[in-house]
Amino acid sequence: QVQLVESGGGLVQAGGSLRLSCVASGRTFSSRVVGWHRQAPGKQRELVASITSGGSTNYADSVKGRFTISGDTVKNTVYLQMKSLKPEDTAVYYCAVRRFGGLFYDYWGQGTQVTVSS
User: How far apart are CA 79 and CA 70, in angstroms?
Assistant: First the structure.
């Protein structure tokens, strides 16, 4: 089992920044992908950014150049640095982990709310 705990959400004005953290505990996959997802009210959940255990990253077009995903293997933590935030970034942000090569994310955190005011 893997436990994921997100933190760092909050209320910020448009143009501001936040850094989200996702701390993993338990038996993590040796070769894995950690993804930050978000879900806004009335919208489908979307993958925002992901990082492999080897450090390769991917971003949704909507956040490229504004969000940065990074990992600290010593702390078992993955971060999502968000800059130039827009009201449309408002959502609950979730981190999740899957096996490298797996189709679906196996474990999810409880989510953290990010609200961007205009």
Answer: 5
